[in-house]
Amino acid sequence: MLNYLAKRLALSIPLLLGITIISFVVIHLAPGEPVELGTELGPKSGAAAKQALRQLYGLDKPLHVQYLTWLSRMVRLDFGRSFSPDGRLVIDKIAERLPITILLNVLELGLILAVAVPIGILSATRQYSLFDKATTVIVFVGFATPDFWLALLLMILFGVHLGWLPISGLRSLNYEYLPLWAQQWDLIRHLILPVLVAAFGGLAGYSRYMRQSMLEVIRQDYIRTARAKGLPEEKVLYKHALRNALLPVVTILGLSVPGLIGGSVIFETIFAIPGMGQLFVQSAFARDYPVIMGILVIGAVLTLLGNLLADVSYSLVDPRIRVGREG
Amino acid sequence: MKRGFPTAKLLLSILLGAWLLLALACGRKEAGGQAGGTPGTWQPSYGDSIVEASIGDISGLIPNITSDSASHEVGSLIYNGLVKYNKDYNLVSDIAESWDISKDGLVITFHLRKGVKWHDGVEFTAEDALFTYKTMVDPKTPTAYSEDFRQVKKIEVLDRYTFRVSYAEPFAPALASWGIWMLPKHLLEGRDLKQSPLSKNPIGTGPYKFKEWKTGEKVVLEANPDYFEGRPYIDRVIYRIIPDQATIFLELKAKGIDYTGLTPIQYTKQTEYPDFRRSFSKYRYLANGYTYLGFNLLDPRFQDKRVRQAIAHAINKQELIEGVRLGLGQEATGPYKPGTWYYNPDVERYPFDPAKARALLGEAGWRDTNGDGILDRNREPFKFTILTNQGNEDRKKTAEIIQRRLREVGILVDIRIIEWAAFINEFIKKRKFEAIILGWGLSPDPDQYDIWHSSKTGPDELNHISYKNPEVDRLLDLGRHTFDQEKRKAYYYKLQEILAEEQPIVFLFVPDALPVVASRFKGIEPAPAGIAYNFVKWYVPKELQRYTK
Question: In this structure, is residue B137 part of a structural domain?
Answer without folding.
Answer: yes
